[in-house]
Design a protein that fits this description.
Nuclear Transport Factor 2, Chain: A; seven-stranded mixed beta sheet; alpha+beta; 34% strand; 4 helices
């Protein structure tokens, strides 16, 4: 069970320092494999530390108050850790075109708040994959990029 506890500690730090506020850019080099995969429904998949760093820098520039936090205890089995989260932010920065469904003009003032569940694979104490299933439809509706039914 020690491996699962260690993996949960790694993921807990990742959630706090990568997705939390304030964020710690150095956490990318410290806690991920060089070819880490980051994949969510709102954005194109990211591969590798530089791609992940570039994504998050742009996301946080556009949404300076971006913050995500866990909403339940992490669950671990072998190399996998599952976490549920909630978060969001307000688009007050530059134009943002990273959403697969559209772009926001600079300083739109639009807010998003949504939830998701993420599965992370930890390899030798580093995160190799983060694949999430999020409520992207809610976020896109709140941002005005998707019309509510």
């Amino acid at each position: 069970m020690a491996r699962e506890q260690e993996n949960k500690a790694v993921v807990g730090r990742w959630f706090s320092e990568f997705w939390g506020s304030p964020w710690n850019p150095a956490i990318i080099d410290e806690l991920t494999t060089p070819d880490m995969l980051l994949q969510y429904s709102l954005h194109a998949p990211r591969r590798g530390r530089d791609d992940v760093r570039s994504f998050m820098m742009g996301f946080r520039e556009a949404f300076p108050d971006l913050n995500f936090w866990g909403t339940a205890d992490l669950i671990a089995e072998g190399d996998y850790v599952v976490g549920r989260w909630e978060g969001g932010g307000t688009h007050t920065g530059p134009a943002f075109s990273d959403f697969l469904a559209g772009s926001l003009p600079a300083g739109s003032g639009r807010k998003m708040r949504f939830t998701g569940t993420t599965v992370l694979r930890v390899q030798n104490g580093r995160i190799a994959e983060e694949i999430g299933l999020d409520d992207g439809v809610t976020a896109l509706q709140q941002l005005g990029l998707l019309r509510a039914a």
